[in-house]
Design goal:
2 copies of one chain form a homodimer.
Chain A: E1 6-10, H1 17-30, E2 35-39, H2 45-55, H3 63-87, E3 91-95, H4 98-107, H5 113-124, E4 131-136, H6 139-148, H7 162-178, E5 183-187, H8 192-208
Parallel strand pairs in A: 1-3, 1-4, 2-3, 4-5
Helix pairs in contact in A: 1-8, 2-3, 3-4, 3-5, 4-5, 4-7
Chain lengths: 211, 211
């Protein structure tokens, strides 16, 4: 059986990644492709338990411990969900993956990019997506969308300040520039249908050559 | 203020490390030394929460995720308890530390020793103890002592088979041989008082030059 394709969605808070991940999974299923739709941190019982620790506002993780927890959650997710799905020929659509760690803990969080990539090699054998969709919106629009969520409340990560989120966005942009063959930058402005159409266009080639 | 001393106790299950850590902390306090007595995995609220995930029999962590979780717990423990205590001039007596990860996840668990040491550099700045006491007992005695605990019940790590524990013991011995200036091997046979006396003898030089 042919190995499935691994597609990740990346970007800052409020860019619409989760919505787009759902729309993408639906569109692939409508084409008869079996899809595992998942997200990070989380996606397996072990990784969801780690997610609970990471997002707990009562905890005060410093950057190195946080990076190790994300890598541990990812290792469990890859070993127990993503790799088995790919080996069974399914496509995997994942809302956030390694590049979020590189942008959040690496670029903006004080760890070197090299160390984040090393943690991924040790934890997950360095598995990389076939395609990474970087969904980008202007900072002002992201702020407006985030304010709409849960009456403006946010979790430990989302609740950080504007300068932090700007650094994260710049970090994602640098990653996309450094790996143009893996990344496609998607404009996230406008309606969700417009963004979805851009994503399906970016995926056309990958779908065409799929088994 | 002079930095405190950092002493770890290592060894397989049933060697008497926890008992000896308590006796050592008492003996140091009797000499007027301020002591933080702690243990791994655990020692801070974050690390204790990770310990709960690691020891949960319902979870099935593979070796890389397990190693990352231990490193994350250690990073929190070092940042939020061990380093602050040492900087305040206290001694730290810690029941298990890095060498347990090297012996359990590295030697016996399928990760390379180099990777375990890399995780410690990323997570905890590579902090090493001033002195590591390796408490060793014959495998037959360890088995007898473990059978006495909780009617023979054991947790996820302790419950593994004899071959696994023999590999762990061999891993500890190799570490001690490779770093003779940091390790002292302590015979753990006989009464707890006899073992404690051996430990105080091993510590004599460190106590003498202490502030």
């Amino acid at each position: 059986m042919t190995r499935g394709r691994f597609v990740t969605l990346e970007g800052g808070e409020g860019a619409g990644k989760s919505t787009q991940a759902h729309l993408l999974a639906e569109a692939l299923r409508a084409r008869g492709i079996e899809v595992l739709l998942t997200r990070e941190p989380g996606g397996t019982p072990g990784a969801e338990a780690i997610r609970g620790l990471l997002l707990d506002p009562a905890m005060s993780w410093e950057a190195p411990a946080e990076a190790l927890l994300f890598a541990a959650a990812r290792a469990d997710h890859v070993a127990q969900a993503i790799r088995p799905a790919l080996e069974a020929g399914k496509w995997v659509v994942c809302d956030r993956f390694l590049d979020s760690s590189r942008a959040y803990q690496g670029g903006a969080g004080g760890l070197s990019d090299e160390d984040i990539v090393t943690l991924h090699r040790i934890g997950s054998g360095g598995l990389l997506p076939d395609l990474t969709l970087l969904v980008e919106i202007p900072a002002s629009e992201a702020a407006g969308r985030l304010a709409m969520r849960d009456g403006g409340e946010s979790d430990r990560i989302g609740g950080r300040d504007a300068a932090y989120h700007a650094k994260v966005a710049a970090g994602f942009a640098r990653l996309a520039e450094a790996e143009p063959s893996r990344f496609v930058r998607i404009a996230g402005e406008g309606t969700k249908e417009q963004t979805h159409a851009r994503i399906m266009q970016a995926l056309a080639q990958l779908i065409e050559v799929a088994p």
